[in-house]
Amino acid sequence: MQVIDLSRPITPEMPVFPGDPSPEIRIAASLKKEGCVERLLTLSSHTGTHVDAPAHLLSHGNTIDALPLEAFCGQGEVVDCRPLGSKPVSLDFLKQTGCMSRPMDFILLYTGWDAFWGGEKYFSGFPVLTPEAAEWLIQAPIKGVGVDALSIDAVDSEDLPVHNILLGQKVLIIENLANLGKLPAGDFIFCCFPLAIERGDGSPVRAAAIVGL
After folding, report:
1. Phi, psi at residue 27, to the nearest 5°?
2. What is the Cα–Cα distance from 53 to 184, expressed in whole angstroms?
3. Is the dihedral of CA 63, 129, 70, 176 positive or negative?
């Protein structure tokens, strides 16, 4: 069995969505003074590699704590979107790749944009799902769609059509994934367990793929 880490480390210097606060990490206790080490963390619920719950955009959407743990793990499929460059991930493209040719829980879009993590290019130009493609994906009983970019919609989008389509059908969104290029073309289990935040609209996750079970 192999476990592949698909998460970004949380640091004060990490990229955040424009307008979101950067994480703060302060020493709350030290070995010398208190006899133990403890850190105080201040961060957004959508910091780094994170999951969006329906409550992120929908007034009556499920919150993180209202979802069963089974919602955050299942069979995963990676779709190599790198040939698109900055072009949208269309329905025709997904069909050409054979996406969803068999029952699947999570679709992970490998855009290659994680290579730009930490630089200005990470914040724009990444390919995003078209609304038509998102509508097609939710026809199957999938649990979530993930991407190795800042967002599943364009950064300057005001109406967030893909977020609304997916979350409106209780399909989770996982953003800022890493290392999707290490995933096999075949079977793997994808996990993105959140913190158990009461009434949480989202949460940082330690996303991982389990190969060879």
Report:
1. -75, 120
2. 27
3. negative
Starting at the edge strand found earlier in the chain, the sheet holding 2-5 runs 2-5, 208-211, 189-191, 73-80, 106-110, 144-147, 172-175, 50-52, 202-204
- Whether 17 maps to a domain, the answer reads no
Distance CA 213, CA 57 (A): 35
- Say if CB 97 and CB 84 are below 8 A apart: no
Domain of residue 78, residue span: 2-7+45-211
Residue 126 near residue 17, CB atoms below 8 Å: no
The pair of structure tokens assigned to 4 is: 């592949």
Over residues 92-102, the mean pLDDT reads 94
Question: Coil, strand or helix: which one is 191?
Answer: strand
Q: Is the pTM of this model over 0.90?
A: yes
Are 178 and 57 in contact, with CB atoms under 8 Å apart?
Answer: no
What CATH number does the domain containing 196 carry?
3.50.30.50
> How large is the C-alpha radius of gyration of the chain?
17
In the chain, the number of structural domains is 1
Q: Is the pLDDT of residue 213 over 80?
A: no
Pair 196, 148: CB distance under 8 Å:
no
